[in-house]
Specification:
It is a single chain. The chain folds into 3 domains: 141 residues, no CATH class; 89 residues, Ribonuclease H-like superfamily/Ribonuclease H (Nucleotidyltransferase, domain 5, 2-Layer Sandwich), CATH 3.30.420; 132 residues. Helix content is 33%, strand content 18%. Strands 1, 2, 3, 4 and 5 form a 5-stranded mixed beta sheet that branches. β3 and β4 form a beta hairpin.
């Protein structure tokens, strides 16, 4: 600070009013807000119609919410002069568009501050409105207008996008309007480790047509530059990517890969539970008691949980659950690796090195990869469930203690286990619970 050059204190520059064409003439510091009396610097005393000279007619007041100073809302009270033309009699007022647009209640500096608070600091509209001393609708309309002009309509915001992410989001919890939206984000900064993911757009609806139309509206240069599209297991997103981005690689994001593997562990546990006990999981059943422990990462298990797993896996009847659980843990560990080389090594690790006790290596039900699959087909097979199955959503999942609804679900990943042959399946009878009730 010894080399800093100080100047005369100036409230106009401190409050950034010189950029708005205003000058402070007085202040009123209250208990809950501050009022700054301002005047317009430019006289603007020439007629806008005939160009003649004007004389002062009267003065009007205009109030604008400004950037909060001193932890309290700040209000700008402008004294705007009105002139009358000596020739044509036209009456006009001083131009205040530099401070704020017509019929707005926020100054331009306040609008930018509100936009940065919402986008960068992630404050809510209610919080920003309280700090500005304005209503929620006023701040919300100003932020949306500024966001469209500065962010959404920016022609360069799609530059450099190479890794694209798409997923659904339930943003409306009422019966009116679209409940789901399609969220498109830029994952390039995450891939290059230069920052966080960047939101590109939110489109109402969730279907193949929604994502296809969004891609079709983009420029050819943008579509050509996309290398990878990360998504969930919805075939609509996969088909839209294949049609609009033929050169891009469609992959499943880690969250949904781990979720599918975890669901496979649950289905395997439920199937073995039904085969060994003849009923759904109940209190005291070994597999039912470790249902949550199976979904916990192996590096997060306590000594007690490890002992419970070892006790359950000691039974040869639970060997399928042990094998499926081991594959699930290796998938989780693969995505936790920070080095790509180690990640692929863990992901493609041979299952035969970790066979559970009592497992037969020639049994197709225990071998996760009975036949080697080329890498080009391995990803597409994971992303392409059978055509006759309808995609299920989190909101459509059956709550606890509700009747079973006969609806197809997601197919089990081919790498985890194979279904039992038809001859070994138990047919449901009136006295035997169906396999669907074990879910």
């Amino acid at each position: 600070m010894s080399h800093a050059t100080f100047c005369r204190p100036d409230l106009d520059s401190f409050c950034r009013l010189d950029r708005l064409g205003l000058s402070v003439t007085g202040q009123l510091v209250g208990a809950d807000h501050t009022v700054l009396a301002c005047r317009v610097v430019e006289p603007d005393d020439w007629c806008h119609r005939c160009g003649g000279a004007g004389t002062l007619h009267d003065t009007v007041l205009r109030e604008l919410a400004h950037v909060p100073l001193g932890w309290r809302p700040t209000i700008l009270r402008l004294r705007v002069r009105r002139y009358r033309c000596t020739g044509c009699g036209h009456v006009w007022r001083q131009d205040t568009t530099a401070a704020g647009g017509a019929r707005v209640k926020l100054s331009r500096q306040a609008v930018l501050w509100a936009l940065k608070s919402v986008v960068i600091d992630r404050l809510s509209i209610a919080r920003v409105a309280g700090m500005l001393g304005a209503s929620w609708h006023t701040v919300n309309d100003a932020v949306l207008t500024a966001g469209r002009a500065l962010l959404i309509n920016d022609p360069g915001r799609f530059d450099g996008v190479r890794i694209l992410g798409v997923d659904e989001h339930a943003w409306r919890h009422t019966r009116h309007g679209d409940r789901y939206v399609t969220v498109i984000i830029d994952l390039t900064p995450v891939r290059e480790r230069t920052g966080a993911a960047r939101l590109l757009d939110i489109v109402a609806g969730r279907s193949k047509e929604v994502f296809t139309s969004w891609l079709a509206r983009q420029s050819p240069a943008f579509r050509t530059g996309i290398e990878v599209v990360a998504m969930d297991g919805f075939t609509g997103f996969k088909t839209a990517t294949t049609e609009q981005l033929p050169d891009a690689t469609a992959v499943m994001d880690p969250f949904h890969v781990v979720a599918l593997a975890g669901d496979a562990v649950d289905r395997c546990r439920q199937r073995v539970q039904q085969a060994t006990r003849g009923h759904r999981g109940r209190s005291g059943d070994p597999l039912y008691g470790i249902r949550r422990v199976l979904r916990t990462g192996s590096d997060l298990l306590t000594d007690r949980q490890r002992a419970r797993l070892a006790a359950v896996f000691a039974d040869d009847a639970h060997v399928e659950v042990e094998a499926t659980w081991g594959i699930y843990q290796r998938i989780v560990a693969a995505y936790r690796q920070t080095r790509p080389g180690r990640r692929e090594e863990n992901a493609h690790h041979d299952h035969r090195h970790h066979q559970p006790r009592g497992a037969c290596r020639t049994d197709r039900a225990e071998d996760p990869r009975p036949h080697p699959v080329p890498p080009s087909r391995r990803r597409s097979r994971l992303l392409r469930p059978p055509r006759h199955q309808q995609r299920t959503h989190r909101s459509d999942q059956r709550p606890t203690r509700t009747p079973t609804r006969h609806r197809p679900g997601l197919s089990q990943p081919h790498q985890l286990h194979h279904p039992r042959p038809t001859g070994h399946r138990r047919l449901p009878t009136p006295d035997t619970p169906s396999s669907a009730m074990s879910r």
